[in-house]
Write a structure and sequence with these properties.
- There is one protein chain.
- The protein is α/β, with parallel strands linked by helices.
- It is about 30% helix and about 25% strand.
- It has five helices and seven strands, in the order E-H-E-E-H-E-H-E-H-E-H-E.
- Strands 1, 2, 3, 4, 5, 6 and 7 form a seven-stranded mixed sheet that branches.
- GO terms for molecular function: G protein activity; GDP binding; GTP binding; GTP-dependent protein binding.
- One of its GO terms (cellular component) is extracellular exosome.
- It comes from Saimiri boliviensis boliviensis (Bolivian squirrel monkey).
Length: about 190
């Protein structure tokens, strides 16, 4: 492929490389997976409550330096009855966000189980991010930031606390994953 540069309406050159990769969200029901994705897509989370079997598929593109990163996002259902379907969604994924609710210790324990499963069964090069969601409810916190950060460090995970409600760190989380993928040179020229 040849590299080409065309101008955007604001006069800035378009990205010369395109990164396209599959990202899967995993975590228990009601931790805010769908809300994080919807916030990232620029939608107000409480106006849309998806009802789906297994997973929903969404896409979003962002520009990072000279690269357009296209996320192919699989938002999995958190109910236990759908757990057996998860490998179908994370198979071939270059990135995963494992989400837990900072006000619920059980969801953090379950997030650790998801991380172990990804480390054991997903691609060895997968980027795994741990997201402690509902940071706007810090006064009801049951999972300490330091505990989650230590776990993330011990397991080589990206880690951020997020709030889909206030948008805190939502874009930063996806951009950090995009930059990590961009650094792995899984991109191609236009």
């Amino acid at each position: 492929m040849t590299s080409r540069s065309t101008a955007r309406p604001n006069g800035q050159p378009q990205a010369s490389k395109i990164c396209q990769f599959k990202l899967v969200l995993l975590g228990e029901s009601a931790v805010g997976k769908s809300s994080l994705v919807l916030r990232f897509l620029g939608m107000v989370a409480h106006t849309y409550n998806p009802s789906y079997l297994g997973a929903a598929f969404l896409t979003q593109s962002v520009c990072l330096d000279d690269t357009t990163v296209k996320f192919e996002i699989w938002d999995t259902a958190g109910q236990e009855r759908y757990h057996s379907l998860a490998p179908m969604y994370y198979r071939g994924a270059q990135a995963a966000i494992v989400v837990y609710d900072i006000t619920n210790q059980e969801t953090f324990a379950r997030a650790k189980t998801w991380v172990k499963e990804l480390q054991r069964q997903a691609s060895p090069s997968i980027v795994i991010a741990l997201a402690g969601n509902k940071a706007d409810l810090a006064n009801k916190r049951m999972v300490e930031y330091e505990e989650a950060q230590a776990y993330a460090d011990d397991n080589s995970l990206l880690f951020m606390e997020t709030s889909a409600k206030t948008a805190m760190n939502v874009n930063d989380l996806f951009l950090a994953i995009g930059k990590s993928q961009q650094n792995k040179s899984q991109c191609c020229s236009n």
